[in-house]
Design goal:
CATH architecture of one domain: Orthogonal Bundle
Order of helices and strands: HEEEHEHEHEEHHHHEHEHEHEHH
Number of strands: 11
CATH class of one domain: Mainly Alpha
CATH topology of one domain: Helix Hairpins
Radius of gyration: 39 Å
Number of helices: 13
Largest sheet: 9 strands, mixed
Shape: rod-shaped
């Protein structure tokens, strides 16, 4: 044993003398990883339930995006450990934090998000849509309600007050010289005077009554001329009231969002889009919660992805809602990966393959139907 120890000591001394370092002192050489041959066995895949594309009803998620991902994962030879994230915000946070290898989303590809993570090629093309509550404009009560407004009531009150005052003056002037048209009795006389004023406003006069006194004729002339103005005022106010009731309070498209209270999903592209159009945005953790707020009248509309809103609005518990206006602010959906991840190249290759061989269109049509 002493002989072996001395021999090793001599060898080490010779290596130092010749400028060579012992193998134990050398840093380990880097190992080159070839993505094509050393694939990651399992990936942490973050998902959050989004109507029409991802649902989580049991132990595993389902939906069109899940089927697309499973096909891609099969082609690149990896297994998936799905991680349920409760909100869309968390779906964006897990990649920079290193808590997931890929986020399915689907995530809208924007320049702002490219600063946080990398995106794959697009798997969907979609756009924004607006959901509003239905308005019941049918029935007798709705018709009567459309005639009522403070402006119309104020005008009507002023006319009634003026007719009541001038009716007393007219009766006082005509009751002695013209008792047949304006009787001596107070209630009958004032009532006939106000009836004469009403007929004069509408028709310009009253055939079975005449006014003889100078002051009475002055009042009559004033009502004849003023009746034309009042009738025109009633018509214009009534028209404006009915138009405002049917048009002003309604959102028909993206141009009507300015100044309106709009619900959007938190951290989603819809919130930024609505703000750019002048809307007063209230953010909610999910689109479903935004639609619940719409049903309660907390917001005037909900802006979200078209396909998701179509599915949610048509559910049985969403009676009284509808989609309005065209699709606007179109964008592409893709998968998210951490910045600089080598996984991106492999995913892009698989996405191109399923796009070119028709697999992508087949999966989308199975879930969403045929669309132009």
């Amino acid at each position: 044993m002493l002989f072996i120890g001395a021999f090793l000591g001599v060898c080490v001394g010779l290596q130092i003398a010749t400028g060579e370092q012992p193998n134990a002192l050398l840093p380990p050489e880097p190992i080159e990883v070839n993505d094509s041959t050393n694939a990651i066995d399992r990936l942490r895949v973050a998902v959050t339930p989004i109507a029409s594309v991802v649902e989580w009803t049991g132990k595993r998620p389902t939906g069109v995006v899940i089927d697309i991902w499973n096909e891609i994962a099969r082609r690149i030879g990896v297994a998936s450990d799905f991680v349920l994230e409760p909100t869309f915000v968390r779906l964006l946070e897990v990649l920079p934090a290193g808590q997931a290898d890929v986020s399915l989303g689907p995530l809208a590809i924007t320049a702002e998000r490219e600063q946080m993570l990398d995106f794959t090629h697009a798997i969907f093309n979609s756009g924004m849509r607006i959901a509003v509550r239905n308005r019941d404009n049918s029935g007798f009560l709705a018709a009567v309600k459309s005639f009522l407004s403070w402006q119309l009531l104020e005008l009507l009150g002023c006319v009634m007050a003026l007719a009541f005052f001038t009716g007393h003056v007219l009766w006082w002037c005509e009751r002695r010289e013209n008792p047949n048209s304006f009787p001596h009795q107070y209630l009958r006389g004032v009532g006939e005077a106000m009836w004469w004023i009403g007929c004069t406003i509408v028709t310009g006069g009253c055939d079975n009554k005449h006014v003889g006194s100078p002051l009475g004729r002055t009042i009559a002339f004033g009502w004849m001329v003023g009746g034309i103005v009042l009738l025109a005022s009633f018509t214009s106010v009534l028209t404006a009231t009915m138009t405002a009731e049917r048009v002003v309070g309604t959102i028909h498209g993206p141009r009507d969002l300015a100044g309106r209270t709009v619900g959007c999903q938190q951290a989603a592209l819809s919130a930024k889009t609505a703000r750019q159009r002048g809307a007063l945005v209230q953010e909610f953790p999910t689109v479903k919660e935004a639609l619940d707020a719409l049903a309660l009248g907390m917001v005037e509309a909900v802006v979200g992805e078209n396909q998701s809103l179509m599915v949610l609005v048509n559910q049985p518990n969403r009676v009284g809602m509808r989609l309005v206006g065209p699709i606007f602010e179109t964008f592409d959906y893709g998968f998210g990966v951490p910045t600089g991840s080598p996984l991106r190249k492999r995913l892009n290759k698989a996405i191109l393959q399923i796009r070119e061989d028709g697999t992508l269109d087949r999966i989308k049509s199975e879930w969403l139907g045929q669309h132009d």
